[in-house]
Amino acid sequence: MINFVKMQGTGNDFIILNGIEEELGKYSDLAKKTCDRHFGIGADGMIVVENSSIADIKMVFFNADGTEAPMCGNGIRCFSKYVYDNGIIQKTTFKVETLAGIMEPKLNIEDGIVKSVTVNMGAPKLSTKSFPIITDEETFINKEIKVEDEIFNISTLSVGTIHSIIKVDNLEIIDIKKIGPLIENYRVFSKKTNVNFCEIVDKNNIKMLTWERGVGQTLACGTGACASAFICSKLYNTSKKVKVHVLGGILEIELIEGLIFMTGPAELICKGVFYLD
Questions:
Q1: Nearest partner of 166 among 145, 181, 186, 149, judged by Cα
Q2: C-beta separation of 206 from 200 below 8 A
Q3: Angle at alpha carbon of residue 9, lines to 4 and 13, rounded to 5°
C-alpha cells in the first residue's frame, strides 16, 4: 500500500505521491492503476515528488494512460502546494526540476494558506525542432489542416509540452470528443499533440476547451492556457495579460518580456492509502 494525496487545479485532478519516502515501483504501471476512475483513485495524471541534484525539488508527471509527459501546468501548481504544505520545501519561491527544464513557482499565501500559485513557465518554443512533428517548415503557426472534410487553422508550439491551438468563433459547436482525438493523432504529429480550441471573448478574456493526449477531454490545462494566450496575443492581438476561462475555472496568464507567467488555484481534495494488487 502507498500513501497518496489527491489535488486539483481548475478541475484538472492529480494523484501526488512521495517518491522520496516510499518505494513506488514502475511509475507507468502505477499511474494507470491509481488514475483509473473505476478501479483506482481516479485522476487525470499522477505526480511523483523526487529529490533533485539541480533544483530544490523534482516533479515527475505521468498521464492517466501511463505515458510520461515533460510538464503539466495545473500539475506543477498542485505539486508546489503539496511540497510546501508537507514541509518538503519551506520557501515560498523555489525551483522545480522537470523534463521540460527548471520551473519557478511562487506561492501566494494568505493567513498561512496557499491560495494560488504563480509559475514562470519560461519562453514558448516555436521551432518545429523543439517538439515531435513531421514537417519541413521551421514553424507550424497558422497552418491549414483538413480533418473530416473540415479545414482548421492550427498553431503548434511547445510550452513545456506540445500544444496545438485552434481559434474558433463559438466553442459550443465544437464536438471535441469527435474532433479532438482526430487532431491529437493527425499524421504530422509523430507523438500526438494536445489540442486546445479557443474562443476570444474580448481582448482580456479567452474561453478554451482542451483535449489532452493520453487523457481525453479535461476540465483545464495549464500549459494549454499558456500556449493559447500566447497564440491569441501573437495572431489575434489579445492583451498580454488575459483570463483564460476553462471548464474548471479561470487561469490568469501574463506575457512579460518573452516569458509566460501562469497564476491559478491548487486545492486539496483528499488524502489516504491506496492498496496495490
A1: 145
A2: yes
A3: 45
Query: In which residue are the cell numbers 522545480 written?
Result: 96
3 state SS of 229: helix
Q: Write down the catalytic residue from 72, 198, 226, 232.
A: 72
The residues that bridge with 153 in the sheet, in sequence order, are 144
CB 250 within 8 A of CB 220: no
Is 0.85 surpassed by the pTM of this model?
yes
Task: Return the number of other C-beta atoms located less than 10 Å from residue 63's C-beta.
Answer: 22
Active site residue 78: no
Q: Which cell goes with 224?
A: 494549454
Tabulate helix, strand, coil % of the chain (nearest 5). 20, 45, 35
Tens digit of each residue's pLDDT (9 = 90 or more) over 189-245:
999 999 999 999 999 999 999 999 988 999 999 999 999 999 999 999 999 999 999
* C-alpha to C-alpha distance for 98 and 54, rounded to whole angstroms: 10
Rounded Cα distance, 80 and 265, in Å: 11
Provide the 10 A C-beta neighbour count for residue 175: 8
The reply to whether 35 belongs to the active site is no
Q: Tell me whether strands 249-256 and 259-264 are parallel, antiparallel or unpaired.
A: antiparallel
Q: For 37, which DSSP code?
A: T
Which single residue is written with the C-alpha cell 465544437?
174
Catalytic pick from 35, 198, 221, 232?
Answer: 221
**Cell matching residue 274:** 491506496
